Amino acid sequence: MPDRLVLLGSKGGPALRPGGPWPSSSLLEIAGRTIVVDCGLGVTRGLVDAGISLKTLDLIFITHLHSDHVLELGPLIHTAWTAGLATPVNVFGPAGTGHYWRRFCQAMEFDIEIRIADEGRPDIRELVSIDEFGEGQVVEQGGLKVSALRVDHPPVTDCFALRFEHGGKSVVFSADTAFFPPLADFAEGADILVHEAMLEEGIERLVARTGNGARLRQHLLASHSFAEEAGRIASDAGVKRLVLNHLIPADDAEIGEADWSAAVRKTWAGDLTIARDGLVVGFRE
Predict the structure, then answer these.
(1) Which of 61, 98, 125, 235 could link 130 by a cystine bridge, Cβ 3.0 to 4.6 Å?
(2) Cα distance between residue 63 and residue 274, in whole Å
(3) pTM score, two decimals?
(4) How far apart are CA 153 and CA 222, in angstroms?
(5) Distance (Å, rounded) from C-alpha 212 to C-alpha 107?
(6) What's the CA gap between 155 and 248, in Å, rounded?
(7) How confident is the model at residue 175 (pLDDT cuts 50, 70, 90)?
(8) Which domains does the chain show, CATH number per domain?
(9) Measured between alpha carbons, how far is 261 from 256 in angstroms, rounded to an integer?
(10) What confidence tens digit (pLDDT) does each residue in 190-244 have?
(11) What's the Cα-to-Cα distance from 141 to each of 36, 131, 184, rounded to whole Å?
């Protein structure tokens, strides 16, 4: 199968609305590896719909511990386990990922113990390894190299952009971040930059319908990037394709692809993809 990126969940934030998109998760298939980046609500269904056999789950990366990036990590692995997973799964995440996983297994202890005894399954707790990472090289195995850059997402300190490289191909995920110029150096020359994006005209309507307006607005402006800022990073980095993802707002009926394009075209003239759930992005030859 050719290398590909599948945007499983394309919205920023944890809320779900009727007919709307799902929170953050992506599938990267490169060098025969099945790599999941972030596990927001809906990741399991998204992987199945993308044609992935859950029992082949391999590598999972979590950029930070906000719920729209980690809520379904435990349920994904557990569902894969009930689907026949019997091979190791490696989870890489920031400090606190191991705590999440241990507490998830404690919460599911009745089910885990009874399935081991009743169905003869391997112990899920022994199948999963958690590696907590900081800035720098995260892993290098079988030609796959993954590195991390701490980005600017207050009040979360441990939030990391990730760069995946194999055989001359490279994909960078910005994670959640305010405009952060060092990200351009980190993403230099990447085939694909997946960068979060906000649209200014949608913010007021979003905070009005969500509640807690003043505080939410303050968080969004301090911790996230506008589409034109994502375009500036892509231009400075000289990437081959920019994918706008983690869209805020992602489910505003008055905002469409043309609006996102118009904003990002102020700073980016290259290949552009606006994320939507299930969209497949190939590598340009």
Answers:
(1) 98
(2) 21
(3) 0.96
(4) 8
(5) 31
(6) 18
(7) very high
(8) 4-282 (3.60.15.10)
(9) 9
(10) 999 999 999 988 888 888 877 667 788 888 889 999 999 999 999 999 999 999 9
(11) 16, 14, 25
Residue 271's closest CA among 258, 281, 279? 281
Q: Residue 251 and residue 183: Cα distance in Å, rounded? A: 27
- The whole-angstrom separation of Cα 39 and Cα 31 is 21
Confidence of residue 2 (pLDDT cuts 50, 70, 90): confident
- The dihedral of CA 121, 124, 126, 127: what is its sign? positive
Q: What is the largest CA-CA distance in the chain?
A: 60
Q: For residue 4, how many other CB atoms are within 10 A of its CB?
A: 14
Compute the Cα dihedral for 28, 29, 31, 34 and give only its sign.
Answer: positive
pLDDT tens column, 237-277: 999 999 999 999 998 888 999 999 999 999 999 999 999 99
Q: Is the dihedral of CA 216, 217, 218, 222 positive or negative?
A: positive
Predicted local confidence at residue 126, as pLDDT: 96
| DSSP character at residue 12 | S
